[in-house]
Design brief:
Layout lengths: L2 E2 L5 E3 L11 E6 L7 E5 L6 E5 L14 H7 L10 E7 L8 E2 L5 E4 L4 E4 L11 E2 L3
Parallel strand pairs: 2-9
Antiparallel strand pairs: 1-3, 2-3, 3-4, 4-5, 5-6, 6-7, 6-8, 7-10, 8-9
């Protein structure tokens, strides 16, 4: 059985690229450790992205979120520490082939239940970074 986290319904400020009809998602736990999650569309029955928090894999990852994105999501300087950042996983044939997108994280404000996949300006951040080294 899939457990919903504390954020039952998350509304996207803008649809994710390639999925214009999907604006409502639920974050569901996929493992007992609480690291692996599904970002499941509530608008399409068969759409789910696997996501992970960056800290276990990239502890120094600290994306800079533009002020306009923070405003759209209702993030203030007082609530910035409460923001949830998630990396979208692309499953490979093996764990060694599995990658995460460091260039376009999901940024979630749990207080407003608003989120956005943010495409960062930092071209040094890869679209397909190894999940494990």
């Amino acid at each position: 059985m899939i457990e919903a986290m504390d954020i039952p319904v998350i509304e996207l400020a803008h649809p994710m690229p390639g999925f214009p009809a999907d604006e409502r998602f639920a974050l569901v736990r996929l493992d007992d450790t609480g690291v692996l999650h599904g970002f499941r569309s509530l608008d399409s029955d068969d759409l789910q992205f696997v996501v992970v928090p960056p800290a276990p894999f990239y502890p120094d990852y600290a994306p800079e979120i533009a002020d306009e994105v923070a405003d759209e999501l209702g993030i203030s300087s007082d609530s910035a520490d409460d923001v949830l950042v998630l990396l979208v996983v692309r499953a490979g044939a093996t764990l060694a082939d599995t990658t995460v997108n460091l260039r376009a994280p999901l940024v979630v404000n749990p207080a407003t239940r608003r989120a956005s996949q943010v495409i960062l300006d930092d071209v040094a951040l890869p679209l397909a970074a190894p999940l494990v080294a």
